[in-house]
Amino acid sequence: MSDNLTNLIIKGLQGHKLDRRTFLKLGGISGAGFVLASALPKTANATDQPSLVGSVDLNAYVSVGDDGKIVILSGSPEMGQGIKTSLPMIVAEEMGANWDDVTVVQTSIVDTDRYGLQWAGGSYTLNMNFELMRQMGAMARDMFLSAGALLMELPKHELKAENSVVFHPSSGQSRTFKELVAIAYKQPIPAVEDLLFKEREEYRIIGTSKSQVDSLEIVTGVGDFGIDTRVPGMLYGGYVKSPSVGGKLISANIDEIKREPGVIDAYSIKGNGEPRELMDGIGIVGTSTWAVFKAKGKVNALWDETQASKDSWVDFEKFAASVDSPTGDREVVSRGNLEQVFADDSNLVIDSVYEFPYVSHMCLEPMNCTAYFQEGTNGAKDHLEVWIPTQSGPGFQTVAESVYGLSKDQLTINIKRMGGSFGRRTSSEYVCEAIELSKRSGKPVNLTWSREDSIKHDYFRVGGFQKLRAAINADNQLVGWEEHAIGVQQKGEPVIGSGFRDNAFPLVNFPTVRGTMTLMEMNTLCGPWRAPWSNTHAFVTQSFIHEIAVATGRDHAELLIEMLGEPRWLKKGDIRSMNTGRAVDVIKLVTEKAGWGREMPAGRGLGLSFYFCHAAHVAEVAEVSVDDNKKLTVHKVTVAADVGPIVNMSGALNQVQGAVIDGLSTMVGQKITMENGVIEQSNLHQYPVLRIDAAPKVDVHFIQSDNEPTGLGEPGLPPLAPAVTNAIFAAIGKRVRKMPLIDEGFTV
Amino acid sequence: MSKIKLSVNQETFQLEVADDMPLLWALRDTIGLTGTKYGCGIGQCGACTVHVNGSPVRSCLMKAIDAEGQDITTIEGLAVGGELDVLQRVWIDQDVAQCGYCQAGQIMSAAALLANNKKPSDEDIDNAMSGNYCRCGTYVRIREAIHTASRFYDASREGTS
Prior knowledge:
Chain A is α+β, with helices and mostly antiparallel strands and 748 residues long. Chain A is 29% helix and 22% strand.
């Protein structure tokens, strides 16, 4: 075994980690001729470690060692959105810390009383934690200022803290945090209402670029992903479920499976019928993931499929084709006299139908969880320890209580870094499956789904169809707007992401408007997928607005700006409602930066789109060329976004660049279909993804308005698809109303 | 089952593996080097890329028993003597990763590219890196990082230290 080797590496890295920022400054090595060799770090000795022994907790999030090293906790789960870096940056900023002195550590427990929300999602994690992070930082700073006042015998209000130093500007006297920490922690903890916060102009950390706090672990292979969890005595596990969701296990060749090489035991497991918790299945534990994968392939099970999904994508298409009314039976929004504008003979009416498929999350790290269930003996309570890559630790606390009757004091929840999530890791079935295997085997079990499991048992982005029509008056103005989504319901209610909501542009602000839905009952599991609703609604509506611009001979940008109307918050004081002025600002900026309106060669075009979601105003312009064989090249995507002040510039740019490429990957080739309830795709050979050779340049511009700061995990994605399809139209005059593009004969 | 000796990161490991066990799982579950990642199991995502005698190989497709007698390098072995490889340093410096799960494979493919081609063009990078999928879409930064790293290789070759 290589424990020695791994330990050596980890030991070496722990040393590097503290020093790395002294030699690795963002952008600092891009100059030509700079040679790295002399700047390589030496393996650190023990005194360089952040000594939690001898350190003091100034509050729930901040502790400082007697060596001056600062540990800031990260309470929110990290899935690649950068929250583990950006939230501690806010703390460090208000604290007056030197970022080089900071080590960030994931909270080791789930305790929402102590740490707050501890979940991540909706691109609101930054926004919802900003105030708490400021308070934690300002509280720590106040205690250092009190200590400095005592030690330097100066009035506290004349002191400032920067770069881990408390100083007196007029006299030049100063004391480092290291010198003050022993006194600081004895100072009274200030009341939240007495805290003073920095002005934006005083920021030194917020708004700069910081490499992710886990970058070193990631590039050296010692990252803390859930799938890498190793616990002494651990077995590897797998779980086989009904190929169509809802099937009940009648029987399986358990005895044969137990004899497979590397298999330690196998079990028939009865579920509770809740797909997000525990479905019937065959559980297997073995000596390696490979042994378990192989044994899973040998499972021969009989399923009662009476209650199982019989979904068919083809049937859904037929259903959609049978719906011919422009108006559905389920009303979402209705305003103004729409019948009148459509009945008016002097108005031009145009209509279209759009289509988009189910898609998979395709998190590169498959679903997994490690669980260790220990039965209480001698009157002690049962205890469950889990290592979960999840967007919500508190969410699992609820499930542990309802499914297993385990209270918070019987749980140890380790939140692991996620190898991507995009909304996927919000359910608990992969946790419950691991628990079942641990309960039966009496051992800790690392349960890992195969790629095939992860696709076939995903909670998909729901597919759908949408009819649109618009009325245009004699002055070429849009006077009526109607949307009719043909979507999916489960137990009579629309599934997450199906159709649209009443707060979506342009339904939210247009004066004469109607949005309705017609839903088909389907059982295929659906869930949040990066910018739910918006990721399809933006494609549909922003393409159709371009169709209107083309039909009326108007400039697309000018039409969009007219549709947004007077600058205002749609709901005053609510950043989740659109600010039409900011919307116009990002449209103007993106068109300026992309050179909107310039002459383009044949076969090349620019496409524009705008969308508002997740408190973010985002406009994008794609520059695309299409050759005679319908080979598509996306040369460049220009983005303008207003999400208020940027906390970590590097992370923010990365999120937008990634959202653009993810959006392109999805629209080009991805489509999940099902027949008789069984998902027809299983792995990448049937589910093409974008490769580096097709990745466009991405040029991102932020308007750092006085909007409250908010997240960027999602809002960069929705405008991408319509920007590209509008550019295709500009290039070759073909309107794309159906995803994915490869089904329309395009290649990249 | 076969007893084999594997040379990984210049260390020898004796292990007993199923004859069909891919090198990926021998590394992860038997030896315990979890830096090499499982993504698809069919050689299409590149997350499991390691070097075998210096060449990039998808370790999910190579049987462990076939790797006997070959020099295997994983992401854990890229930093030699506690010193990070230039690529690793640039990857940190330019904050390439998002979720980070694919990045070990990306770096191993990039390292194999730079070992043979000190000044790769965009097209060279596309050719060498197209087998490595990034779900988060960090391709823009991966390309920039390889170019940056190649400048350092170039500088050190010219002895401008």
